[in-house]
């Protein structure tokens, strides 16, 4: 599949792009906000498109054309306020869902947040972020798309272990960003993840084996 990575310059997105670029099964198109980011990726031989999640649905649909799947890893980041969280993590995600439907793309994977589906378990310090993730996920589940919603725990920058725990509900835990990326890429064609949502933390089971148990 040709996979559009939304948020390709983010910390998880960079891992996803790298894995797809070396994949024998998929090709990648990286969506970034700035031309200098695109130039840097182009110099690495990676196809890019410059687009902004605050653009219109039609503009985002243009960025998606020619793709078979979308991986949404974008986020407004911890240094912005609730306004950007609303515009990027919620409305930006929803616009890409609408754009995917508009262009007839079917496969869509979103990186959400641990326990975003249970309000009582939201982190009070970043509650607007959880609100955004919760409702973006709900829109995705209600769409016509073949979705997978991945809800990782606390994100780490250490090297991946290749071993995870994945289930509808898991206790709080952490996971390297590299393992989140590997899980997302592995989910692309794994039918066990189709129309599924799950929490994700580090564990004792190899990623492909853990996904087969969903």
Automatic annotation (TrEMBL):
<feature type="domain" description="NAD(P)-binding">
    <location>
        <begin position="7"/>
        <end position="190"/>
    </location>
</feature>
<dbReference type="Pfam" id="PF13460">
    <property type="entry name" value="NAD_binding_10"/>
</dbReference>
<protein>
    <submittedName>
        <fullName>Sugar epimerase YhfK</fullName>
    </submittedName>
</protein>
<dbReference type="InterPro" id="IPR016040">
    <property type="entry name" value="NAD(P)-bd_dom"/>
</dbReference>
<dbReference type="InterPro" id="IPR036291">
    <property type="entry name" value="NAD(P)-bd_dom_sf"/>
</dbReference>
